[in-house]
């Protein structure tokens, strides 16, 4: 059997493995991307909320907020900072930043809850001698955590839309 025959045999067996693409529903064939782009991300307060709002909006609908949304996504963010790695003079050298996001997807017109969940990310950074460098490290850790949470929310919403 030639190389082409082996490739055909290998790829032919994947159709029966039970997996389906996340971007398309099995029953209707409609696109999950179309459902995601119909989600309006509700505004969040403060700078961290604005960052989360932008990350979610970019992941769900890179074109911006939908003109005629079908769904509304509400997110509440909490942040916890834990200092670790203490020196002899009792100053911390490392910190963990934990971002928790409680989210709910609701029908835009009726306000009926459709799906809810929680996403969490913990990132760490060094606490340095220079306060500015520490602030930059903390901001970077916060941004990484927010991106991870936004990715997780997008994945969970995609799975929800695939199953409905």
List keywords for this structure.
4 strands; alpha+beta; four-stranded mixed β-sheet; 4 helices; 164 residues
Class based on secondary structure composition and strand pairing:
alpha+beta
Q: How many strands? A: 4
The main β sheet shows up as: 4 strands, mixed
**Low-confidence segments, ≥5 residues, pLDDT <50?**
none
Percentage of β-strand residues:
25-35%
The spatial strand order of the largest sheet comes to 1-2-3-4
Question: Total number of helical segments?
Answer: 4
SSE run: HHEHEEEH
C-alpha Rg (nearest Å): 21 Å
Which range best describes the helical content: under 10%, 10-25%, 25-40%, 40-55%, 55-70% or over 70%? 25-40%
Quote the distance from N terminus to C terminus. 43 Å
Mean pLDDT rating: 84
Which term fits the overall shape?
elongated
Give your account of this protein's structure.
The protein is α+β, with helices and mostly antiparallel strands and 164 residues long. 38% of the residues lie in helices and 30% in strands. The protein has four helices and four strands. It has helices at residues 3-12, 32-36, 46-60, 131-163, and strands at residues 39-41, 71-86, 92-107, 113-126. The chain has a four-stranded mixed β-sheet. Helix 3 (46-60) crosses helix 4 (131-163). It is elongated, with a radius of gyration of 21 Å. The mean pLDDT is 84.
Which secondary structure elements does this structure contain, and how are they paired or packed?
Elements: H1 3-12, H2 32-36, E1 39-41, H3 46-60, E2 71-86, E3 92-107, E4 113-126, H4 131-163
Parallel strand pairs: 1-2
Antiparallel strand pairs: 2-3, 3-4
Helix pairs in contact: 3-4
């Amino acid at each position: 059997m030639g190389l082409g025959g082996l490739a055909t045999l290998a790829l032919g067996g994947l159709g029966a493995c039970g997996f389906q693409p996340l971007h398309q529903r099995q029953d209707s064939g409609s696109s999950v991307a179309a459902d995601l782009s119909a989600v309006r991300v509700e505004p969040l307060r403060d700078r961290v909320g604005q960052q989360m709002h932008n990350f979610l909006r970019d992941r769900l609908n890179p074109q911006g907020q939908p003109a005629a949304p079908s769904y509304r996504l509400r997110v509440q963010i909490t942040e916890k900072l834990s200092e670790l790695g203490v020196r002899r003079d009792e100053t911390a050298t490392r910190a963990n930043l934990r971002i928790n996001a409680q989210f709910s997807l609701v029908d835009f017109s009726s306000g009926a809850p459709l799906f809810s969940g929680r996403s969490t990310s913990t990132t760490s950074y060094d606490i340095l001698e220079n306060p500015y460098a520490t602030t930059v490290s903390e901001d970077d850790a916060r941004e990484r955590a927010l991106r991870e949470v936004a990715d997780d929310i997008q994945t969970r919403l995609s799975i929800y839309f695939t199953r409905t």
